[in-house]
Amino acid sequence: MSGTFVGMPAFPKAAHDAVHNATLRANLRHATTTIRRKRADAVAELSDWAALREAGKQIKDHTLRNLDRYLEQLESAVTAAGGTVHWAADADEANRIVTGLVKATGEKEVVKVKSMATQEIGLNEALEAAGIRAYETDLAELIVQLGDDRPSHILVPAIHRNRGEIRDIFRSEMMRWGRPAPDGLTDTPAELAEAARLHLREKFLRAKVGVSGANFMVAETGTLVVVESEGNGRMCLTLPETLISVVGIEKTVPTWRDMEVFLQTLPRSSTAERMNPYTSMWTGTTDGDGPRAFHLVLLDNGRTDTLADAVGRQALRCIRCSACLNVCPVYERAGGHAYGSVYPGPIGAILSPQLRGTGSDIDASLPYASTLCGACYEVCPVAIDIPEVLVHLRERVAQGGPVTRAGTKVVLKPARGHAAERAAMRAARWALTHPGAVRAGQRLAARTRRFHPSRLPGPGKAWTATRELPTVPRESFGAWWKRTDGGTRDGKGGSR
Amino acid sequence: MRVALFITCVNDTLYPETGRAVVRLLTRLGVDVDHPLGQTCCGQAHYNTGYRHQAEPLARHFADVFGAYDAIVTPSGSCAAMVRELYPRMGERARAEGRGDTLARTLAPVVPKTYELTEFLVDVLGVTDVGAYYPHTVTYHPTCHGLRGLGLGDRPRRLLEAVGGLELTELPGAEECCGFGGTFAVKNADVSAAMGTDKVMNAASTGASVLCAADNSCLMHISGTMTRLGVGMRPVHIAEILASTREEPSA
Predict the structure, then answer these.
(1) From the list B46, B182, B183, which residue is nearest A429 (CB)?
(2) Is the pLDDT of residue A213 over 90?
(3) What rounded mean pLDDT belongs to chain A?
(4) CA A113 from chain center: how many Å?
(5) Calpha distance A229→A333 (Å, rounded)
(6) Burial of A51: CB neighbours in 10 Å, binned 0-12, 13-18, 19+
(7) Could you tell me if B181 lies within 8 Å of chain A, comparing CB atoms?
(8) Does the beta-carbon distance from A438 to B40 stay under 8 Å?
(9) Are residues A16 and B185, on separate chains, in Cβ contact within 8 Å?
(10) What is the pLDDT of residues A444-462, one digit of tens each?
């Protein structure tokens, strides 16, 4: 396994492997069912949850509609507070900016707060290529990094690992990155946490540069907000001399007052907590307190393209709580890696194909990685209608259509591999608008019912591999209705 | 009131006994039902697989066939949700694409008049005791589109609880999807099968002899999984239970 998602197989293939990995499924099932129940309890405590959800949706929609204005306000406020703002159109540009900023300090290592944006752009790999080592300090991210693994959950990147696996990773890998694991380390949570604490303390005390993301950026004051559970993030944000924050432009909120909504909905949706254990906020620089230099890298990387799509843009409301992952039955079986992105689960299935386009096999398969059961929409604290966007993106994959890529409107052709399906859909559409053809087909199926195979070839093979087919009845309902005049003539099935 | 039955393409072709049960049930409750023979399919499979443009003629056909009735009743939560939730959305999308109001205006008449069967019984006819008798232990699976799309709530349960002789048992993980999901069952067969297996095992753990739902597509997937796994439960559509009486019991 490697640290990036390049060359991921399409979702059904990746999910096939995960479904047949008993340990992975057991780990995921245990974790998601526990958090699912806790979240439901935490949400049920608030009588105004529905109103909070609507408010969160409205704030985000309003901000997205006026994003240009709020980003300029944010830039002015950050600059006025002593920070420097950089604009990055894509991953390469963002990586170039950050690498340049670190090099300018003369440092060879950085400590990192858990950050989806830097994972999205592959910053650790870019820094590595420039001879700079990035240390992840979030406990789960540390496990992922030491294990040469990939994150599989938004909030709990190592959710696919159990305690025994984590102990083994600590024992064999910590020494290669710094302080080794204590002798005789067991798999008790307290011992594992202590091993990570000792290992990380060395990094915190030595590091001169910190790299973070942010959960929110308040435009009116230029304040950045990080919410986390361990305190490791706060160490990264306060101890280094230089702080570089890489944040997606959609993380903007207009005012401080808006935080009132999200600081209630985010912790309850994500960790089922009433309040977040560590909420760090920083505004530019302050003499004698915290980092002396602050850089904000505002990341686009497909976000304005997504914003141009009237249906798909609601994905940008996401506050990365991961409630949709925890409730999704497909995620529970397929695991996070199958989604081929730092954004797994239902939100990943609609975000990745918009940020990256539907050109690759994995991105074209993601909109189909759902039964459209609607559980994700139901739990989303900003009411993203994920099933609606999934179907919208399926249309883009199956039929092509207009999209915006790199700021330019283009018309996509249908993705490869959908020609047979398209032909079948067209044929079915023809038949279904000609009732006579449907009746003829039903009569034929009924007459040949004894010759129907129990195992099907072609696409039907996927069905009959694990399920029996229903037997075709002697007579369709329509034929019965016609023969008996709605059940009035044969005495059976109706007595009118 | 002129009530039309929309029996759905899956019921019509594969599960005609569900349609016959709906006829028996509604007739018993004094409803004069019609089954317009020109009906085919609501277009859900096309729409949900990403073929919205192919679904449009099917939706127009549906509106042509059913537009003149006072109510349209269907024994399928997902087909009812297709008409009620997604037909308006199709109209809006056509408008956004600069194709005017024609589609929206064509589809509008059928949208508020389309009811899922249990909704029609409880909300329109105002009954929860339909005079049924079904002496079996039954567990109920609320299908996703009925549960979250239409918001059927406890209507099916209230109807089942009023059935004579019926013992209702709690299905663990009831609100979790069975894994059918239309073309998902074929496109992501492994995950679909894993979800189906869990649903069947949960159902088997209740000790019930019958698994009941209000949608034959989900039941087709669950039933096929049960048979393959050798779980001796009968999957039955709720209409067949509600149609069953002492004098004329359902199979």
Answers:
(1) B46
(2) yes
(3) 93
(4) 18
(5) 27
(6) exposed
(7) yes
(8) yes
(9) no
(10) 888 888 888 888 877 788 8
- The letter for the amino acid at A104 is A
Chain B residues whose beta carbon lies within 8 Å of the beta carbon of residue A482: 37
Q: Do B186 and A422 touch (CB under 8 A)?
A: no
Between CA A267 and CA A216 the distance in angstroms is 14
- Position A490 scores a pLDDT of 63
**β-bridge mates for residue A281, sequence order:** A225
Rounded CA separation A447/B240 (Å): 25
E strand segments, chain B: 3-5, 33-34, 71-74, 114-116, 137-140, 167-169, 210-213, 234-237
Interchain proximity A396–B177, CB inside 8 Å: no
Q: Does B127 touch chain A (CB under 8 A)?
A: no
Q: Copy the structure tokens of residue A280.
A: 């760090």
The residues of chain B scoring below 70 in pLDDT are none
Q: A420 CB contacts (<8 Å, ≥6 apart)?
A: none
Q: Do A368 and B220 touch (CB under 8 A)?
A: no
Taking the C-alpha atoms of residue B207 and residue B1, their distance in angstroms, rounded to an integer, is 42
SS3 state at B233: coil
How far apart CA B19 and CA B25 sit, in angstroms, is 10
Give me the residues paired with residue B167 across strands: B137
A346 vs B contacts (CB less than 8 Å): none
Tens digits of residue pLDDT in B15-72: 999 999 999 999 999 999 999 999 999 999 999 999 999 999 999 999 999 999 999 9
Structure tokens at B58: 């099917």
The mean pLDDT of A369-393, rounded to a whole number, is 98
Closest partner residue to A329 (CB to CB) among B16, B34, B177 is: B177
Please check whether residue B113 is in contact with residue B63, taking contact to mean a CB–CB distance below 8 angstroms. no
Question: Which of A439-457 are b and which e, b meaning 16 or more Cβ less than 10 Å from the residue's Cβ?
Answer: beebeeeeeeeeeeeeeee
